Amino acid sequence: MEYIYAVMLLHSAGKEITEESVTEIMRSAGLEPDHGKIRSLVSTLVEVDIEEAIQTPVLAGAPVSAAAAPAAEEEEEETEEEEDLQGLGALFGPEPPG
């Protein structure tokens, strides 16, 4: 991810994105650059319009998936609460009829 950040920083500064410039950003951040990853990233970006890529949503369905996650967590919490209550019943005995 830090390689992408380096590219974004160079892009926002209006600098040319080269292997050397990405390597320099990585080193200035105190990171040890992986030259293979940098070479691959820079060669991939040659054909990419970064400004357009920034403005284009990558995962249009992601918010729907994220919205479903809280519901699953709530179900899990309810199940855990029921199990906890069952455990308390075993500790204090069954409820008297009522």
Task: Walk me through the structure.
With 98 residues, the protein is mainly α. It folds into two domains: 2-55, Orthogonal Bundle (Arc Repressor Mutant, subunit A); 59-91. It has helices at residues 2-12, 19-28, 35-45, 50-55, 62-92. Helix 1 crosses helix 2 (19-28). It is elongated. It starts with a helix and ends in a 6-residue tail after the last helix.
Helix percentage range = over 70%
Distance between the termini: 61 Å
* Percent in strands: under 5%
Quaternary organization: single chain
Q: What is the number of independent domains?
A: 2
Rg from Cα: 26 Å
Characterize the biggest β-sheet. Answer: none
Strand tally: 0
CATH topology of the largest domain: Arc Repressor Mutant, subunit A
Shape: elongated
Give me the CATH architecture of the largest domain, please.
Orthogonal Bundle
SS content category? mainly alpha
Spell out the key features of this protein.
Arc Repressor Mutant, subunit A; 0% strand; single chain; mainly alpha; 98 residues
Blueprint of the fold:
Elements: H1 2-12, H2 19-28, H3 35-45, H4 50-55, H5 62-92
Quick rundown:
By secondary structure, this protein is an all-alpha fold. It contains five helices and no strands. The protein is 70% helix and 0% strand.
